[in-house]
Amino acid sequence: MSERYAREKDRYRKLAEGGQNPSTMIIACCDSRAAPETIFNAGPGELFVLRNVANLVPPFQPDAGQHGTSAAIEFAVNSLGIKDLVVMGHGRCGGIRAALDPSAGPLAQGDFIGKWMALLGPVAAQVSSYTFLTANERQTTLERLSIRNSINNLRTFPYIQALEQEGKLSVHGAWFDIASGELWVMDSDTGDFVRPEA
Ligand SMILES: [Zn+2]
């Protein structure tokens, strides 16, 4: 850890003086195995990263609530002027597993995870009913559907929709396979996740 800091020290100094200017925002899961900076081999200042449980984006909801994820999106798009916004899901996601098994009940008083994952409620209920799939197949299916769902929600933010139409912002989806270390990229036309060529 400290070695890494020593190596990057100059870079930190420059960033402190000049400010940050990343052109890409990544919305990823908190899972310690799916760290965007590691996956993209990015140094300080290169990626604006937001991580939350299961990399979800709520719809644009201008009410009195305290929307941490929406606040980060608002800043990245309107202050940093990022050009690319990536929603990156991953395999074996515990949050997605919880959404598929609501019978497991709350983890603790408050049930913040349950309420957060309710963002996926209707989609999760539908995928849960696909009993012709194995549990693992349902999990991967929901991990990917959830990314498309989050992208749809991003487009409910009026400025994101406008910037995208003006060609000033691109929204992308990706899914990281923890077991193989492969990054599958979503085809923006079909919504399919395409495995990288070896
Ligand atoms: Zn996860």
Distinct ligand kinds? zinc ion
Spatial strand arrangement across the major sheet: 2-1-3-4-5-6
Terminal CA distance reads: 31 Å
State the secondary-structure class.
alpha/beta
| Individual helix count | 8
The dominant shape is globular
Helix content: 40-55%
Features:
198 residues, alpha/beta, 6-stranded mixed beta sheet, 8 helices, globular, binds zinc ion
What does this structure look like?
The chain has 198 residues and is an alpha/beta fold. It is built from 8 helices and 6 strands, in the order αβαβαβαααααβββ. The protein has helices spanning 2-18, 36-39, 68-80, 94-100, 112-117, 121-128, 135-154, 158-165; strands at residues 24-29, 47-52, 84-90, 170-177, 182-186, 193-194. Strands 2-1-3-4-5-6 form a 6-stranded mixed beta sheet. Strand 4 (170-177) and strand 5 form a beta hairpin. The protein is globular, with a radius of gyration of 18 Å. The two termini are 31 Å apart. The relative contact order is 0.15. The mean pLDDT is 94. The protein binds zinc ion (ZN).
Summarize the structure.
This protein is α/β, with parallel strands linked by helices. The chain has eight helices and six strands.
Describe how the helices and strands are arranged.
Blueprint: H1 2-18, E1 24-29, H2 36-39, E2 47-52, H3 68-80, E3 84-90, H4 94-100, H5 112-117, H6 121-128, H7 135-154, H8 158-165, E4 170-177, E5 182-186, E6 193-194
Helix pairs in contact: 6-7
Bound molecules: zinc ion (ZN).
